[in-house]
Amino acid sequence: MAKILRTLSTARLLVLLGAVVAAAAAVAAIAVAAIGGGPAPAPQALDQAIASALSAPQPDGISARIQFTNNLFPSSALLGQAGSPLLTGASGRLWLASDGRGRIELQSDAGDVQIVWSPTEISVYDASSNTVYRAALPSAGGQGGSGAGAPAPPSLAAIDRALAAVGAHWTLSGAQPTDVAGQPAYSLVAAPKADGGLLASLELAWDAAHGVPLRAGVYAKGSSAPALELAVTDIAYGPVPAGDVDIAPPPGAKVVDLGTLGAAGGGTQEHAPPITGLAAVQAAAGFPVVAPDALAGLERDRVVLLGGTTAVAVYGHGLGAIALVERAAGGARPGGLLGALPTVPVGGATGHELATELGTVVAWQSGGTSFVLAGSVPAATAEAAARAVT
Fold this sequence. Notes:
Mean pLDDT is 83; it is low at 1-18, 23-36, 142-147 and 265-269. The chain is of the alpha+beta class. It has helices spanning 2-6, 10-27, 46-55, 85-88, 156-167, 242-245, 278-285, 336-340, 379-389, and strands spanning 61-70, 90-97, 102-107, 113-117, 121-126, 131-136, 170-172, 176-180, 183-192, 199-207, 213-220, 228-237, 254-260, 275-276, 294-295, 298-306, 310-315, 322-328, 343-346, 349-356, 359-366, 369-375.
């Protein structure tokens, strides 16, 4: 997470949000819809419901109408990108082929967004700027699509072991019979037991007959509305024509190649093993590395130098941890998305802050070092931690 935040430009934010939406939909038509008067399945234990879903036959394809809700970003921080459906939410459509190719179309008055993906690449076309952002996807180990070599579903004993491991850190609600978009479904709520930061819960529901996820939402503490949600309002199972998932942006669109999604700096090169420990990192970094013993009441857990250029100090544990990312400062002030964010004082420096209901990011420069502090903490906590660094 820290490496992604450090290189977060507007282009990467759009592709990252597109990837989040597409990854959720890549298994199926992920989302939540108004729960209506459809039939609910018979009650089942959670492990049995999961086993039935994982052993269900894979659909030949999925077509759906969807509603994407994004309450995560304050409109004041979006500025020039305020009209993008990925940042403001929108309705649209989804197509998913059985071989892993898919497309999501989000529609808005500012211009549509097209998210197209395959097992190896994702592209996001933003009509409001006539720009397509492309990124390669990390290898999934060479597994094919829907071929005969598909792995067997896990046993009930394996599912029980996995649930026990998850249950050590998360409170699970069990499988609750319901209906989503007219489909009999089971729903599950997972809440962190400790160190959850601002995250209240994750919610998921899946089709009881097809094993297809039908509900996904992320909820922040103190809010009854989801921070992020993708909703199916209508769904159909069956083959999807190639023309529905294979579309190209307009010929005159600007193309931005972002390399491999998730790779530091967008590159694909391998790096030397990380250097660990504060003294070793300070000696090897080539720029001033600052890492107090504690921030915001959280003790320093570890310090790592990545790729010889980026130092990461982690404070606390779990989802409530704070990450402090440091690199050699350039001469220019933060640009792109960070430069457009509201300013906050950080010691004698001026920082830029992105505050959301799930966490806060503060970026600033001081003493030859560029800092990005991020954590699932309120803005006031992040600002106090940033001031303690300098």
